[in-house]
Write a structure and sequence with these properties.
281 residues, mainly alpha, Serine Threonine Protein Phosphatase 5, Tetratricopeptide repeat
């Protein structure tokens, strides 16, 4: 019985570490290094990930996925030019690699090359029309270009493909705020919270939107929830202080402003401290 238990234990260990087992038995491959690199990447150990991707390329110089992953690491390192180099190599080896076009669009956007970014993202969509990430990236670009209607189109496309994409729902809510379409903004903020109830920033945004609609009680509840999730959310304390001051609840307002001032002081956010001090005068 003990022998059987030991045998199963050994098998379980080897199943859990396929990459290392391959090395032990001399079965090193480009794919094993790619998989190891992905594991390191997912753990945010980007230096080790890059090393593994380089090993994969040394074993297979035409391994498109390894070049793509290498480009992703350089994008994390905020070296977009290097990232583009490896995404271009990926596309050279596999012209239908939609994710490479998508990431290359992100890299061009970091460099401020908006036209190239849009072209790359649209190419990703042309290759794979149900790939939702490029729609989000295009939505972000059009927000930055102050073209909210274009942004709405792309975020809605992302949601159409992936209704549980909390990012697209949240960003669409923000765009509707810009368009002063506050009811729709609330709808998409609430959808975001159903998907990701721990997304702190949404509570702050929905609080401000409720406030703009004249719904003070729901606004206060939203700000309070933001603070419950993040006690260092100074902006939420400040927003609550304004609401209490508006309703004539002086003590509660001062309490919120004092808490906000403390948070902003600790973070060295001078501009916000000055705003709070004016409210306390």
């Amino acid at each position: 019985m003990k022998a059987i238990i030991v045998t199963f234990t050994v098998i379980a260990v080897f199943i859990s570490f396929p990459v290392f087992c391959a090395d032990i038995f001399g079965e090193e491959s480009a794919e094993s290094h790619l998989m190891a690199g992905k594991e390191y990447y997912d753990k945010s150990d980007f230096g080790s990930a890059l090393s593994e991707f380089n090993k994969a390329i040394s074993l297979d110089p035409d391994y498109a996925s390894a070049y793509f992953r290498k480009g992703c690491v350089y994008l994390v390192f905020r070296q977009p030019q290097m990232a583009i180099k490896y995404f271009e190599k990926t596309i050279q080896l596999n012209a239908e690699f939609a994710a490479a076009y998508q990431k290359m669009g992100e890299a061009y956007n970091i460099l401020g090359k908006t036209d190239q970014a849009i072209a790359s993202l649209q190419k990703a969509i042309a290759i794979n029309p149900v790939f939702f990430q490029p729609y989000n990236s295009l939505g972000d670009i059009f927000v930055s270009l102050n073209k909210p209607l274009d942004a709405v189109f792309y975020f809605r496309k992302a949601i159409e493909i992936n209704p549980n994409d909390y990012y697209a729902n949240y960003k669409l809510g923000q765009v509707y705020v810009k368009l002063n379409n506050l009811r729709d903004a609330i709808t998409f903020f609430l959808r975001t919270l159903r998907i990701n109830p721990q997304y702190v920033q949404v509570y702050y945004d929905i609080g401000n939107t409720y406030n703009a609609l004249g719904n003070s009680s729901d606004a206060l509840a939203a700000f309070q929830r933001a603070i419950e999730l993040d006690p260092g959310f100074g902006e939420a304390y400040y927003a609550m202080g304004l609401l209490y001051a508006k309703s004539g609840s002086v003590k509660e307002a001062q309490d919120c402003f004092e808490k906000a001032k403390k948070v902003f002081n600790e973070k060295g956010q001078t501009r916000w401290v000055e705003k709070v001090m004016k409210e306390l005068e």
